[in-house]
Amino acid sequence: MIIMYNLSRRKFLKQVVAAGAGTVILPGTLLAGDEEVSPVTKDRDLRSGVSRFLLVPPCLVKPTESEITVNLAGGKNPLDCFIMFRESEAATWNKTEIFSIEKHTPVSIILRPLQANTLYEYQVQVRLKGAEAFKPETEGSFRTQRKDSSNFSFAMISDSHITPNEPERIKILSDISKSILARRPDFLLMLGDNIQTFTSHGGPMTEERFGPILYYMLRYGLGNLPASVPIFNVIGNWEGENGWHPEEQRAWARRARMSWLPNPLPYTYPEGGGEYGDYYGFTWGEGLFIVLTVTGYTTIEHVHGTKTGRGDDWMLGENQKEWLYKRLKDLKAKRKFIFIHHTVSGKAGDDLNTRYGRGGGQAAKVGEQKLIHEWMKRFKVNALFYGHDHVFTDIPVDGIHYTCVGSAGAPWKFTTDETGYKNYWPDSGYTWVDVNEDKVLVSFITPDSTKPGGNILHQFEIIK
Fold it and tell me: 52, 53, 67: which is closest to 105 by C-alpha?
């Protein structure tokens, strides 16, 4: 699906500033004047992430064994574009048809046919609409879906809470993104609260224009990472898609997400999922990856500070729950991982945070999570990875790891009083997973300007 927001440059800038009502960070493509864009020079670094035509670097999504989607967002001028792609260092290029990109508008282009478990490189060729010559604008690389038993790595971030009037969060996300890119995982999972609506603690998307602004800023903060590392997105409670929100406002939030950061749809992978890409599954090598939404089908309000919802009344909804059971039961995989913004229950350091869904493994046997935990035991799930609590911690329950992956921008670092965790790391960072034949190694890493791959603060192994 392509959503044509088609805003003028002046109106787009005005909306970003109005939405933030304060200091904002804007990329050079928006801060520049209205003069004609200069031709791309031959010596410009195409992998730098700096673009004279595109609003943000490309974003790779939905990698399969035979295709991948490249999401591009137009800058201040309408464009014609095509993408060249080939196996890494091959002699000849394939290319897509020429397509149009309207200004400040995201479009998704599928590259196919591709071969499984293969390294590819691509180059985006661009011209101003009506001009004659195409010029190379930016480039990247990626690996298609693995279908064998080879070793691989993936990364996870959570809780960037990107919003216009908090520029330091974009800086943190940018530093983390650069560190992840230096390590070159096969893909990245973002575990929710990636953006922050302009209402308190998980409120709705109150205006349709806010969604594109927030996802644009998230893409800007990610920088050049998604140009070479495919993104899988998990929905948190701040994205504006909660089950207790008004349907019109949920639809605004969904449309923005599906346009700027598309997720797999039911037909993308054989494992299927929800019609809006809010839950889905896929395999990678010998691993099964299950992504869930805990807020999308919980209809009882769980706004922080209210006493409407309880810690034991979060829910997946019948369709998602049935889908999860069938996938865990029917799909055979050496490794099984679940990704969700927080457990389908809460058991934290106090009543307020318990109601809000904090606590991770402490809540493994509370509410609907108790049933899911029984399924996880029966069908040999190795780990449940989540965000929400803004720290890194790991709590094994019956041999299953409940791992909170840390935060990548959120300023709030919750303590034992709020979460109940005795051992945790409050640093901003990301979680890195090496999947090997005999074990899974999980590392929590913080970025370091002197070390491209960052500093490892904690590691543990999953051996099964």
Answer: 53
- Note whether 66 and 192 are same-domain residues: no
Output the six-digit token pair for 367.
């509410």
> Are 178 and 105 part of one and the same domain?
no
Find how far residue 418's CA is from the centre of its chain: 26
Domain that holds residue 229: 152-462
Give 235-265 as a 3 state SS string.
CCCCCCCCCCCCHHHHHHHHHHHHHHCCCCC
How far is Cα 445 from Cα 100, in angstroms, rounded to an integer?
40
CA distances from 6 to 69, 73, 102 (A): 21, 11, 6
What does the pLDDT read at residue 202?
A: 75
Total domains, the chain: 2
Q: Which residues contact 28 (CB under 8 A, 6 or more apart)?
A: 50
pLDDT at 45: 64
Residue 406 neighbours by CB under 8 Å, 6+ apart: 157, 158, 390, 391, 392, 425, 427, 428, 429, 430, 431, 444
Q: What pTM does this model have?
A: 0.91
Is residue 253 domain-shared with residue 118, that is, in the same domain?
no
Apex CA 407: angle with CA 403 and CA 412, to 5°?
115
Question: What are 154-205's pLDDT values in tens digits?
Answer: 999 999 999 998 999 999 999 999 999 999 999 999 999 999 998 877 789 9
CA 147 – CA 283 distance, rounded (Å) = 8
Decide if 14 is inside a domain: no
pLDDT at 28: 37
How confident is the model over 69-86, as pLDDT tens digits?
999 999 999 999 999 999
190's tokens: 């973002």
Nearest CA to 195 out of 186, 183, 203 is that of 203
